[in-house]
């Protein structure tokens, strides 16, 4: 794990109690992609023995937050990243550990250019949730904004 990955994962674990509670593992965090794993934990299972829908939502949202921090961490002195809305679709039964992979939906430079113009940019992050066998069990989109500091 690189220092940047460790820093983003440690920052999220320190500031987002649910990430710490679920023991999320930040495997990759770059401006292009974030990969976060939810270990199989019986205390977060649903009624059929797989990860609870709320745990999978938190996993995917945390992956989106990781890529936002990796992509826009250098903007934190002038803007606060905030999730605006999210939509998730549960596609297949998830059992065991699951991994969320997030990708940024707009070029970083375009988002920063809007911020430079005094705008409040919005941008989507797409996330796929996969089981260990590679099957996609869920898809989520989180729309984020960078709210300029007052």
**What is the average per-residue confidence, as pLDDT, rounded to a whole number?**
93
* Total DSSP E strands: 6
Q: In percent terms, what proportion of residues is strand?
A: 35-45%
| Low-pLDDT regions | none
Number of alpha- plus pi-helical segments: 4
Largest sheet: 6 strands, antiparallel
**Which strand order spans the largest sheet, edge to edge or round the barrel?**
1-2-4-5-6-3
Distance between the termini: 36 Å
Question: Could you spell the SSE succession in H and E letters?
Answer: HHEEHEEHEE
SS-based class: alpha+beta
Question: Over the alpha carbons, how many angstroms does the gyration radius reach?
Answer: 15 Å
As a percent range, the share of helical residues equals 25-40%
Which geometry do the CA atoms define? Answer: elongated
Would you give an account of this structure?
The protein is elongated, with a radius of gyration of 15 Å. Helix 1 (3-15) packs across helix 3. The chain has four helices and six strands. The chain is an alpha+beta fold. The mean pLDDT is 93. The chain has helices spanning 3-15, 17-21, 53-72, 108-116; strands at 25-29, 33-38, 79-90, 98-104, 122-131, 136-148.
Name some characteristics of this structure.
6 strands, 150 residues, alpha+beta
Ordered list of secondary-structure elements with their pairings:
Blueprint: H1 3-15, H2 17-21, E1 25-29, E2 33-38, H3 53-72, E3 79-90, E4 98-104, H4 108-116, E5 122-131, E6 136-148
Antiparallel strand pairs: 1-2, 2-4, 3-6, 4-5, 5-6
Helix pairs in contact: 1-3
């Amino acid at each position: 794990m690189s220092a940047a990955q460790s820093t983003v994962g440690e920052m999220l674990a320190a500031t987002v109690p649910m990430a710490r509670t679920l023991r999320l593992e930040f495997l990759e965090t770059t401006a292009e992609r974030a990969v976060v794993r939810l270990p199989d934990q019986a205390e977060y299972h649903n009624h059929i023995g797989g990860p609870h829908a709320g745990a999978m939502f938190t996993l995917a949202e945390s992956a989106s937050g990781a890529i936002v921090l990796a992509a826009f961490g250098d903007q934190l002195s002038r803007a606060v990243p905030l999730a605006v809305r999210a939509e998730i679709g549960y596609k297949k039964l998830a059992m065991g550990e699951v991994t969320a992979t997030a990708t940024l939906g707009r070029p970083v430079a375009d988002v920063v250019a809007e911020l430079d113009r005094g705008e409040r940019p919005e941008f989507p992050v797409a996330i796929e949730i996969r089981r260990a066998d590679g099957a996609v069990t869920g898809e989520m989109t989180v729309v984020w904004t960078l709210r300029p500091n007052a």
